[in-house]
Amino acid sequence: MKKMLITGGTVFVSRYVAEYVVKKGYEVYVLNRNTKPQVKGVALIEADRHQLDDRLRGYHFDAVLDICAYDASDVNDLLDALDSYDDYILISSSAVYPEYGKQPFAEDDKLGENRFWKAYGTDKIAAEQALIQRDDNAYILRPPYLYGAMNNVYREAFVFECAMQDRKFYIPKHGEMKLQFFHVSDLCHFIDILLAQKPSTHVFNVGNPETISILEWVKLCYQVCGKKAEFVFVEKDIESRKYFSFYDYEYELDITKQREWMHHTISMEKGLHWQGI
Questions:
Q1: What pLDDT, on a 0 to 100 scale, did the predictor assign at position 178?
Q2: Closest to 89 in 3D by CA, of 34, 10, 13
């Protein structure tokens, strides 16, 4: 039986991953401060990741799934506290790519500050660098917008609420901006592949092979609720985040390396409907 350590385990991605690996029959430990309900079937290591002392001594983990590292100190403090492990997977972000770079972004492209994500992106770069310096066998995943069951980020939920209230939907310009998504279930499946196949590539962009316009995305969200969207197109120069779920920023990741190992992903339509593990 594989023994897994998951950082977090109580909110969105980390909670989904915890439920997923518990369902697979693994021995699952979660590291968090115990301020939220825990997933049934996990073993809790109650601690702040910056004050671990000897809390992880004596444990050997087949895999460390670091979902909640946001900067270099998050990575370094956890590595300092770990006794032994086989594989380390860090969930980073597409925010590490500067918005002015050539798209689609590839894994070996220059990293830098993105004016939309600012410190979040540069801190993720620092987390990646800290991990690579100490464990060059670790894996780093850079997803675009993650979605799916347990999502606590007010994106599709905002559109669902508008749909259920039969509201007209205000959308930037003509809704042509395209976004790239990745379902949390696909993220889990790709983690499975990494742990089973151990590819020699260690940094992966992950995401759906196709992008989707925000107009079509909103239409799909309304359809999930059994509604038909009626749009109001906002042509004025108003910051989109004041009335919409996303920044006015279109980008795409090159997922060629991911597709060498993972050939299918959940369609956006199915992903918005499906709330399972």
A1: 97
A2: 13
- Structural domain harbouring 23: 3-149+181-207+252-265
- In the chain, the largest separation of any two C-alpha atoms, in whole Å, equals 60
C-alpha separations of 161 from 169, 182, 217 in Å: 11, 22, 15
The four Cα atoms 141, 142, 143, 145 give a dihedral, to 10 degrees, of 140
For residue 277, what pLDDT is reported? 87
Helix axes 119-134, 72-81, angle to 10 degrees: 30
DSSP string, 113-153: --TTTTHHHHHHHHHHHHHHHH-TT-EEEE-SEEESTT--S
Of the candidates 151, 14, 21, the one whose C-alpha atom is nearest the C-alpha of residue 70 is 14
Residues lower than pLDDT 70 in the chain: none
Asked if residue 224 is part of any domain, the answer here is no
In a domain, 138, yes or no: yes
The set of residues, in sequence order, having a beta carbon less than 8 Å from that of 242 and lying 6+ positions away, is none
What local confidence, expressed as pLDDT, does residue 100 receive? Answer: 97
pLDDT of 237 reads 83
Q: What gap in Å lies between CA 3 and CA 251, rounded to an integer?
A: 37
| CATH code of the domain in which 123 resides | 3.40.50.720
pLDDT value at residue 155 = 96
Give me the number of domains the chain comprises. Answer: 1
140: how many CB neighbours lie within 10 A of its CB?
A: 21
Instruction: Count, in order, helices (H) and strands (E) of the chain.
Output: 8, 13
CA–CA separation, 126 vs 275, rounded Å? 33
pLDDT digits (tens, 9 = 90+) for 100-137: 999 999 999 999 999 999 999 999 999 999 999 999 99
In this structure, is residue 171 part of a structural domain? no
What per-residue confidence (pLDDT) applies to 236?
86
Residue 215 domain-assigned (yes or no): no
